[in-house]
Amino acid sequence: MNKHTIEQASTPTKTKPGFWSHFAISLTIVSGMLAANFSAKAAESFSVEVIGSGKPVLMIPGLMSDARVWRPTAEALSGKYQLHLISIAGFAGKPAIDGDLLPRVQQQLLQYIDQQQLQKPAVVGHSLGAFMAFSLASTAPDTIGTVVAVDGLPYLAPVFTRSNDTTVAMMQGQAGYLRQQYQQMSTEQLTAMTAQGLFIQATSQAHQQQVLEMAAASDAKAAGQAVYELLTTDLRSQVHNIKSKVLLIGASGAMANETDRSAAQALYQQQIATIANATLEFHPQARHFIMLDQPDWLTAQIATALKD
């Protein structure tokens, strides 16, 4: 997730700044073409890179990032798994599409799974990609296998408000305002906004620069549409449909104190409370792009989750 917070991108609201920004400052998707027999036209909302062999695993990046963030992790897993690295339209240089974004990505991912005859693929998603993993698994519980959600939730808005009592109705006006703001941004403005929150995204300057470059190559209108959809789509009432195992991983390295860390863990836990087989893990040093900050630890967590 390379991005901008509600606080940065909008007029003052009831939302509160702080460590919650680390989640919002994120989310990611991208665009493209396809793999194997899947037609480019059918998959205009994403592209696919396939590496390795074995049990299928979809890997979905977050807002304004692409498959590059997952490639090292995928390479580490490629001896036992077939990794399908997704890049979503409009992000990190991928051509944007008009209209709804995330609903189309979900629909076309399910078509891709069917056409490629993937048997209960696991879904590993970061930020926006984690939201997509929850959406896929709750919409098609008999189709999706293990879910690993990396610093992403069934509903984004509570990250800003610090309350799981937040509803879509409360966020509708602000979501529309944010979408309009993004649509008016130049590449320079989008890049500058991203730069303000880089310390939340990753620890090293090299990784921060990687995040910034992906954002700079993204389409502002697509980013705004994604943010709007994330703030106006609440999956909490349907994640109980998920039948597979779920591992939710959080990052607390950018949080200022133990009070913030405890509050974040409680909020994350509440969002997965209705899922029958869900586990929560936090890394105390990692920042939002956990795969960049703590690659070995995250790869081990994913590998363990995928064993069953």
Automatic annotation (TrEMBL):
Q: Which GO terms describe its molecular function?
A: hydrolase activity
- Show the Pfam families listed in the entry: Abhydrolase_6
Q: Gene3D superfamilies this protein is in?
A: alpha/beta hydrolase
Q: From which residue to which does any coiled coil extend?
A: none
Domain (AB hydrolase-1): residue spans on this chain: 57-298
Top-rank taxon, per record: Bacteria
Task: Return the InterPro entries for the record.
Answer: AB_hydrolase_1, AB_hydrolase_fold, AB_hydrolase_sf
The UniProt keywords, alphabetically, are: Hydrolase
Instruction: List, alphabetically, the PANTHER family matched.
Output: MONOACYLGLYCEROL LIPASE
This protein is called what? Alpha/beta hydrolase
